[in-house]
Amino acid sequence: MKKAMKWACKWKCLVALVLCVCCVMQGMTVYAAPEVMPDGGLFDAEFYAATYPDVVAVFGTDPAMLYWHYVVAGKAEGRLPYAPTQPAQTTQQAAANSSVTNGFAAMVPGSVVTIGRYEQDGNLANGSEPIEWIVLANDGHRLFILSKYILENRAWLHDYANVPWEASDLRAWMNGTFYDTAFTADEKQCIVEVTNSNQNSAAFYGPGLGLPCGNDTKDKVFALSVYEAQAYLGAVPETVADWNPAMQATTTIYAQQQGCWTHSVNRRGFWWLRSAGACAGSHVAVVQDHGAVVSHVGNAAGEGARPAMWVAY
After folding, report:
1. Closest CA to 74 of 44, 101, 32
2. Within 10 A of 152 (CB to CB), how many other CB atoms are there?
3. What would the pLDDT profile of 157-182 be if each residue is shown by its tens digit?
4. Where are the domains of the chain?
5. pTM, entire model
């Protein structure tokens, strides 16, 4: 009798365990194993489309187009090519309960959000002003944002040397002084460090043009690449068109005071991208006041900083 009761007890436990597993599995989406792409990379188009509806809205669901987006921009943005086996990032977990990102989940491309503070009106006596950011993408967990205004006059490098983004003064400032002073401790918990792909700029400028852009970098704050600007803002080289309102940006009064070139009528200025320029001697990609992408030397005076970053919510 005791033996029978033991077996009955074990059977009940087994049934309970199976039911628990079934309940968990009902809340999970199971994707097929990622495919090996022609370049050797692993990619799951079904997962990518389901996870990033903002990409689908622009590129559709064709697997080849989705993989192209991942290679050109998605990898640099920290997007996943296939379903992860690990839990969500701890940064996202910290951001989930943060009042910093309230309302961010509902934001769509073109929306404006506020996070951080930086001097903008040129009046140091009244303190720094809230930073406004344009939403470029919302992947369901994070916002990809770009500062609405050119915030600071910054050279790419202090001298004429040809260096990539990884060694630039601009990168050091964005991930150092700017990051340290513009954001509170709570806000920093929401900013996601991403691995930026710094792809040769030849595919953007066209045959016979473009330069290597250096190694991939880990950044919390960064300048857009020409490919990110192309994907999200429709950037084109000046040789194709020289007018793009989506790429135009005005300088703050403070940035102008610091030496940032500013149009006398519309207050628009020039701002750096992190990609290399079109040819030797013009080392860095720059957005002109009317929105086209040109190339300037790294120590050019008057170009401004327009930071970008990923923020978890």
Report:
1. 44
2. 26
3. 877 667 889 999 999 999 999 999 99
4. 2-28+36-74, 90-312
5. 0.72
